[in-house]
Amino acid sequence: MINIADSLNSAYANIKQLAIKHHRDPNTVELLAVSKTKPIESIVDAYQQGHRKFGENYASELDQKVKDLSQYPDIEWHFIGPIQSNKTKLIANNCDWVHSIDREKIAIRLSEQRQTSRGKLNVLIQVNIDAEDSKAGVLLADVPALAELISNTPNLNLRGIMAIPRKSDDLSQQTHAFEQLNDCFVALKAVYKQVDTLSMGMSGDIEAAITHGSTMVRIGTAIFGAREPKR
Ligand SMILES: *Cc1c(COP(=O)(O)O)cnc(C)c1O
Fold it and tell me: Which residues are near ligand 1 (CB < 6 Å)?
């Protein structure tokens, strides 16, 4: 059994050390603890260590966890998984952030279905940085059009972009993807003042991501332990 307090502290320490090494303010790199498939007890463990930002991939699992953890209203829920259009209502009203907007239809539905009493939903555009058929996300060239559409919706607040680059142990390949993402992020920030979030970097590529401007890294297994092979 993994000790969540210890692994969370290691993740924080690792981020801080990498940020300092690459001349970044450690406070500008946030940690999203990816709790998909993990029991609510694990989330409570991390919560009791002071952690508040959790990432989930499945709409119905998110819905259940939000209900089960309603006594902790200051948890900030991030939806990071692929979005089916019949799940947008659940997603729109159960989280504070969505990282995985990848098409117009989804953006429009999330905005229409978001309860206005909850305030605007913070959203990131998912970029398919390596143009992989197997991955969700828009091509880099299509980010400006989707950003404009989102910025014109009443209930979404465009905060930046997210990507899951192809797995690679080759630092120069990791670097290339992250540089392109950072360029896209900087360009978006120049147009939309509220843009401040570049969600990139996981366990295997966290250093390259932090070097190239990531403001939020997403870590699951290293905090909560291995997931069951198949849900
Ligand atoms: C699962 C997941 C993570 C975390 O992956 P781990 O290997 O558990 O650290 C990060 N980002 C996304 C989009 C994920 O789906």
Answer: 34, 36, 57, 80, 164, 202-203, 218-222
